[in-house]
Amino acid sequence: MNTQETITKVVNALKGNDELTRDFKKNPKKVLENLLKIDLPDEKLDEIVEGVKAKLDLEKLGEGGLLKKAKKLFGGRK
C-alpha cells in the first residue's frame, strides 16, 4: 500500500468516529499503528500523520467552514 492509499484509508476510518479522531489528535502514531496493524519507521509515520492532518483540514474547508466565514466577513449570505 502506498502512502496516499494509507492516508485515504486512515482518513476514512477517522470520519464519523469521534472517539478515534480524538485519540488521533492526542497520539496519532499510536492510532496509525493500531489501524494499519503494521510497524513503520518513524519517518514514514510522520509523513502519513501530516498527510492525514492535511486531508482532514481540507475536508473541513470543503464543508464550507472557511467559505462561510469569508462570506459572513464580507457581508454575504449567511
Commentary on this structure:
With 78 residues, this protein is mainly alpha-helical. The chain has one domain. Helices cover 77% and strands 0% of the residues. 12% of the residues are buried.
SSE pattern: HHHHH
| Global morphology | elongated
Weakly predicted, low-confidence segments: none
Report the radius of gyration as a whole number of Å: 15 Å
Strand content: under 5%
Please count the helical segments: 5
Number of strands: 0
Q: Between the first and last Cα atoms, what is the distance in angstroms? A: 42 Å
The assigned structural class equals mainly alpha
Largest sheet: none
**Roughly what is the average pLDDT, rounded to an integer?**
84
What's the structural domain tally? 1
Tell me the helix content. Answer: over 70%
Q: Layout of helices and strands, plus pairs?
A:
Blueprint: H1 3-14, H2 18-26, H3 28-36, H4 42-62, H5 65-73
Put the structure in a nutshell.
This protein has 78 residues and is mostly helical. The protein has one domain (3-73).
List keywords for this structure.
mainly alpha; 5 helices; elongated
